[in-house]
Amino acid sequence: MQGPSIPHGVLEGLGMVPDRGGRWRIPVPDRFNMADALVSGHARGSRRDHIALVFEDTRGGIRSWTYGELERQSDALAAKLASRGVTKGDVVAIHTGHRPETIIGHLAAYKLGAIVATMSQLYGADTMRHILADSGAAVLITQDEVWQPLRQLRSVLSGLHTCIVTVDVAADELRFEDCIGGDAHGLVRADTCAADPALLIYTSGSTGLPKGILHGHRILPGYRPTLELFFNLELRDRGLVFWTPADWAWIGGFVDVVYPALLFGHKVVALQRRFEADEALDIMSRHGVTHSLMTPTALRRLTQIAAPHSGRDLRLRTVFTGGEALSAETYAWLRDELRIVCNEGYGMSEVNHMIGNCQKLAPIQPGSMGWEFPGHRALLVDDNGNEVAPGEIGEVVTGEDAPTLFLGYWRNPDLTASLRLGPWVRTYDLASRDERGYFWYKGRKDDLIKSAGYRIGPFEIEDVMVQHDAVAEVAIIGAPDAERGQIVKAFVKLSPGFQPGDTLVRELQQHVRARLAAYKYPRVIEFIDAMPLTSTGKISRGALRRLDTSRGESGAS
Fold first, then answer.
1. CA 172 and chain centroid, separation
2. Residues contacting residue 136 through CB under 8 Å, at least 6 positions apart
3. Are 32 and 218 in contact (CB under 8 A)?
4. How far is the C-alpha of 123 from the C-alpha of 527, rounded, in Å?
5. Contacts of 23 (CB under 8 A, 6+ apart)
6. Under 8 Å between Cβ of 344 and 321
7. Do 527 and 543 form a contact (C-beta atoms < 8 A)?
8. Contact predicate 390/435, CB 8 Å
């Protein structure tokens, strides 16, 4: 069940080395600081005057930063933070979204050996208070229009001694522009190990309060080879431009886009917009974007654009996606209409990039998660930790030596320990693996539908249903049923021009029956105006299950 064979020359070119057992591994240096690799090295070298960052504000104004400017301004901010007592291991919370303050803040914190806690601007007051208190943040870098209604939080956060705001500051706050315009003389940069903590990502909190996922500086060298694979071995080309609509507070938006752009000396575009398909294409045309990360939900919305190249100078080459399976129809549209490569990858914030696709090395199998990436171990096991046979459903696990493995859950060793299953690290995701070594996602453990003795994953049903012209978006859940335990239920958002009704329900059911096993068709179909999304842009099956449960007995509508 080995995946595609990759030439040794390619693996060596990615910086990988073979171990004594013949497996390829990703080497991580003992001493490492992400700021050195992302900006400082370029600022000391030939790319000092090359554009690193372009920011488009809400009025359409555009400003750019060179690598040298990012280095100087992050040095100045680091010096200011140090003067306020920030030292190695302190937490700097960043709450500025797709803005230059976010990148400069990350770099400054890394230089001091401090830890960046990322905060989404989608968070409300309760979640912000939880994250600031849970992380013990000493510093908050925030945007005035977001912070203004939340300033009262500071009175209940005893550890938060410094607030840096973009424009409109109170008497006890600092103005960001003043902090980056100062003198960095005397700045002492921290000497960090690769395993020293650097990045604290808070989950979306779909099942309770967000929990902190702590990564070390090693995340960057650990990700580097797989980022090259996801971006189709193109990161060493010249003149690339990166942009993503994904939130920079999440690991996908920042680590999978900003990191590779800066690491390889390219340009990253920042602007804060709510995702609209037409506008996304306009943004990419206007800024010459060549590489992006988008969620499957965003990509499906792009397919509604009839002529994406009409009136636009699109230079997009490769898109990296993940989080949900992408249908064959969406892949075909991206290939034929948008004329790009789309590589799907798998992982989670705790441990990422162990499975994926690189079309330059092996063909895509639409709907597949991809194959085990070199440098990683990905197995499917039963509840006892035993590997399952080809074609059987098992839980995805990886090794404790995974180069992208997190350091642990913030201040929660018991929760960290709960991910261990013998020598493996659990994901709680279910998949099968075919004879060619490709993995096929079946859902979270709590997504699996158990109906009359059958185990049914939602994704293959969704993949079939979205092929019907009437279906714009679909989500499958298991609805309670007295006789079968659960039945398959579909929530459907209709395409323009279609109307809900019993006739369409029967047509969609027959559409599935004709393509899948008889027990997999949705016995109940409910039409809804909009899908609930998680804060990372994925369809929230949990929200749909709660909606269904709150109504009691399910029924077609």
1. 35
2. 91, 159
3. yes
4. 29
5. none
6. yes
7. no
8. yes
> In 227-363, where do the E strands start and end?
241-243, 267-270, 291-293, 318-322, 341-347, 352-356
d(CA 117, CA 106): 9
What mean pLDDT is predicted for residues 128-134? Answer: 92
pLDDT value at residue 555: 45
Q: What is the mean pLDDT of residues 160-183?
A: 89
Cα(181)–Cα(131) distance, rounded to whole angstroms?
Answer: 29
- 295: β partners: none
Residue 554 has pLDDT above 50, yes or no: no
Residue 225 CA from chain centroid, whole number: 17
Spatial contact of 440 and 431, defined as CB atoms under 8 Å apart: yes
42 — alpha (psi -120 to 50), left (phi > 0) or beta?
alpha
> What residues pair up with 320 in beta bridges, in sequence order?
293, 343
Sketch out the chain's domains with CATH numbers: 69-217 (3.40.50.980), 450-550 (3.30.300.30)
Which pLDDT belongs to residue 152? 83
**Has residue 551 got a pLDDT over 90?**
no
- The SS3 assignment for 85 reads coil
Least Cα distance to 266 among 103, 99, 52, 98 occurs for 52
Tokens 């040298």, residue?
68
Structure-derived torsion over alpha carbons of residues 514, 473, 439, 395, reported in degrees to the nearest 10: -100
Half-sphere exposure of 22 (CA within 13 A, CB side): 0
Beta strands per DSSP E along 235-277: 241-243, 267-270
CA 192/CA 111 separation, integer angstroms = 9
> What are residue 467's phi and psi, to 5 degrees?
-75, -15
> Which one-letter amino acid corresponds to residue 494?
L
Q: What is the largest CA-CA distance in the chain?
A: 74
Q: Residue type at 35?
A: A
Asked if residues 371 and 3 have their Cβ atoms less than 8 Å apart, the reply is yes
Q: Which two tokens stand for residue 79?
A: 């010096």
Q: Quick one: how far is CA 554 from the chain centroid?
A: 33
**What does the block give as tokens for 242?**
């990166």
Per DSSP bridges, beta strands 471-481 and 485-494 are: antiparallel
CB burial of residue 353 (10 Å; 0-12, 13-18, 19+): buried
Give the pLDDT of residue 556.
Answer: 43
Residue 552 pLDDT: 60
Output the CA torsion sign for 538, 540, 541, 544.
negative
- Residue 107's pLDDT is 99
Q: Distance (Å, rounded) from C-alpha 418 to C-alpha 40?
A: 38
Give SS3 for 410.
coil
Give the span between the Cα atoms of 388 and 382, in whole angstroms. Answer: 6
- Cα 242 to Cα 224: distance, rounded to the nearest angstrom: 16
Contact of 290 with 116, CB cutoff 8 Å: no
**CB contact set of 280 (below 8 Å; sequence gap of 6+):** 245, 298, 302
**Tens-digit pLDDT profile for residues 261-271:** 999 999 999 99
